Amino acid sequence: MPVVKRFLRYFKPYWGSLILSFIILFFVAVLWEVNTAVAKLIMDGPLKEKTSISKIEKTKTYKKDRLQFVTDFKNKVKKYLEKKGFGKKLNLKNASSGDVAVIVILILILYILKGITTFWGYFLLGVTGHKVIRDLRNDLYSSIINQSVSFFDKYHSGTLISRITNDVYIIQNAVTSKIGDLFKETLFLILIVAAIFYIDYKLSFLLMVIFPLIVVPVILISKAIRKATTLSQMKMAEMMNILKETISGSRIVKAFAMENFEIKKFVNKNYEFFKANVKLVAATVMSSPIMELVGAISLSIVIVYGNMKIKSGEMTTGTFMTYVMNVLLLYSPIRRLNRVNNEMQQAMSALKRVFSLMDEKNKIKSPTKPVKFPEEIKEIEFKNVSFSYDGKKKVLDNINLKAKRGETIAVVGSSGDGKTTLVNLIPRFYDCTDGQITINGIDIREFDLKDLRNNIGIVTQETILFDDTVFNNIAYGRSDIPLEKVEYAAKLAYAHDFIKKMKKGYDTNIGESGLFISGGQRQRLAIARALLKNPPILILDEATSALDTESEVLVQKALENLMKNRTTFVIAHRLSTIRNADRIYVISKGKIVEVGTHEELLKKNGVYKRLYNIQFGAKNE
Ligand SMILES: Nc1ncnc2c1ncn2[C@@H]1O[C@H](COP(=O)(O)OP(=O)(O)OP(=O)(O)O)[C@@H](O)[C@H]1O
To answer: How far is CA 152 from CA 144, 161, 202, 235, 416, in A?
Structure first.
């Protein structure tokens, strides 16, 4: 669907207020015209004898040449005023000071009306625009959040943030203020064009021939603006990526004393952004001189033509001057419309990027008719599972694995051998390329995605916590849960004691990513969160970073509580975990090379034994 048509659908719920605002803005334009007419009325009436203009007007030639439509319009306004009871008071020809007072009041009323209508026209339009943008931003955010994990592999978080903030801001600017200008200026343009056709349609047709001269450069410039905006926004997104990384990773930057390195990186990117913006500025400001040149050509034609007509006596100087003045008047709305067009082009390219993000296909979806998730999990099985991130290199190759209810399955292997990838297939962060994963014999792709994930608890190496209270971090999204339940989970996770010692207990804010608490405490909070969720399946990626002995013991105990009565898949790094595991699967280069208990595998004297010696050393034996 074309971008504009698709975007217009966002206006659908607000058509009423949009049309109303346009009607009001129409009156604003009409009031401008009335104002001009009243000004003429004053010149013709009460002030006529006192101004130099009135003297010029007095000359017979001008009287003859005066534009019929101005006289018509004046008469209409006069008639209208007379009808409304102003007639007797407002004797424009022989005006007294009382008449002037009436005119002043009339002007005041007009300006008040213009003020009120301008306010309401733009206010309604602004509110409608902001409503549309609010809906667009919500849609964009929800489509991003609903995307699969591979989407987040593809797009850097800075890019996504840039789309939601900058791109939407550009569209917002165009929608909330520029649409009104577009409407108003178009209206002015139509009125002036009508006037010049009214004065001399032949000359106006001749001018129409020059019209393509204006349109072609406008189209070319619009294209250049769209291209430059895309480049500028791309560079802005890249800059946001650097910002995001260095601000959230500020400690690492400092630890490695890499401030200057990061500054250089930022300065370079900022320079690229600047260059893109220069291109944008060039494209934007180029339109004005081109338009002026075309304007000068038009005017020259008018002058040559007018000169001929005056000489042949077909046109009077007065009519010609009025015509020229109207042609000059054309410049203002055209210039403003040109500026509006420039901003609209930028908004178009932003819209394209926003929609392209929304159109990204999410391959991980719930089936249309999902199978009910089993009440009780009897068995989870990997059947000939293979997986590749890029469709070429197999990261997992023909994996066969079984976990019965309540069993603990440990996965071990060297770094990069595919352990995380393997466990990520269970909650369908990715779908296997070949084979299938089943729960009680049913392919996991047949379950509703939410049901499947609600039955899986995940505790990862880097504990993801939110800048919120301890309570909200444990309850995550379930604020209605009673405090006792949260406390119970925290007790099982050996977190209750340290939480109680905090200033506000469960209401303490733990800062961005749990910055205000220790690593061990963070892990125990994450364990409490998983305990509260109470899922039958558990995925555990044990932290490799060493904690101090006391913390380590507490985390270990918390994990033991968490693993009780659950079918657990654990990427094991702790000796106690592998010792207690029902089965250990040893992965090497994406393949399962050994299976067995700790003792069985040690006896084999194979890959596991070698890994064990490297990771835990003989001293542990
Ligand atoms: N999102 C991704 N896109 C592309 N390739 C990936 C992605 N994640 C991992 N890989 C690649 O897949 C392979 C397996 O990675 P995986 O993270 O599963 O290994 P791992 O055994 O868990 O390693 P570690 O113990 O170091 O965490 C690696 O070669 C890695 O580079």
So the answer is: 9, 12, 62, 19, 20
Q: Are residues 43 and 156 in the same domain?
A: no
Atom of ligand 1 nearest to the CA of 149: 1
Which residue's CA is minimally distant from atom 8 of ligand 1? 421
> How would residue 60 be classed by pLDDT, with cut points 50, 70 and 90?
very low
Kindly give the pairing relationship between strand 408-413 and strand 583-588.
Answer: parallel
Ligand 1 centroid distance, CA of 293 (Å) = 61
396 CA to middle of ligand 1, Å? 10
Q: Which atom of ligand 1 is nearest to the CA of 150?
A: 1
- Given 319, 347, 363, which residue is the final one in a domain? 363
Q: Residue 257 pLDDT more than 60?
A: yes
> Using a CB cutoff of 8 Å and minimum separation of 24, what contacts does 278-283 make?
279/228, 279/231, 279/232, 280/225, 280/228, 280/229, 280/231, 280/232, 280/346, 282/228, 283/221, 283/224, 283/225, 283/227, 283/228
CA of 590 to the centre of ligand 1 (A): 10
Do 108 and 252 sit in the same domain of this protein? no
Q: Which of 417, 429, 462 to mutate to test the pocket of ligand 1 (most atoms within 8 A of CB)?
A: 417
Q: What is the ipTM of this complex?
A: 0.95
The answer to whether residue 285 is domain-embedded is yes
The CATH number of the domain holding residue 233 is 1.20.1560.10
pLDDT tens per residue, range 181-201: 888 788 888 888 888 888 888
Q: Tell me if 544 is assigned to some domain.
A: no
By alpha-carbon position, which residue is closest to atom 10 of ligand 1? 389
Indicate if 259 and 325 belong to the same structural domain: yes
How many angstroms separate the alpha carbon of residue 395 from the centre of ligand 1? 8
Kind plus residue range of the DSSP H or E element containing 3: helix 3-8
Residue 548: left if φ>0, alpha if ψ -120 to 50, beta else—which one? beta
pLDDT at 139 > cutoff 50: yes
- Number of structural domains the chain divides into: 2
Nearest residue (CA) to ligand 1, atom 25: 415
**Which tokens belong to 305?**
């033509």
Q: Is residue 298 part of a domain?
A: yes
Report the pLDDT value the prediction gives residue 36, as an integer from 0 to 100: 61
Cα angle vertex 162, ends 183, 510, to 5°?
Answer: 130
Residues with CB under 6 A from ligand 1: 153, 389, 395, 413, 415-421
Which atom from ligand 1 is nearest to the alpha carbon of 153? 1
Q: Please give the distance, rounded to the nearest whole angstrom, from the Cα atom of residue 416 to the centre of ligand 1.
A: 5
Give dist(CA 111, CA 34) in Å, integer. 10
Whether residue 152 sits in one domain with residue 66: no
Ligand 1 atom nearest residue 389's Cα: 4
Closest CA to ligand 1's atom 16 = 418
Q: Are residues 160 and 113 in the same domain?
A: no
Evaluate if residue 327 carries a pLDDT over 80: no
Domain that holds residue 187: 148-363
How far, in Å, is the centroid of ligand 1 from the Cα of 558? Answer: 28
The residue nearest atom 7 of ligand 1, judged by CA position, is 389
Whether the predicted pLDDT of 375 surpasses 70: yes
Bridge partners (DSSP) of residue 591 are 588
Residue 558 lies in a domain: no
513 CA → ligand 1 middle, Å: 23
Cut 0.80: pTM above it: no
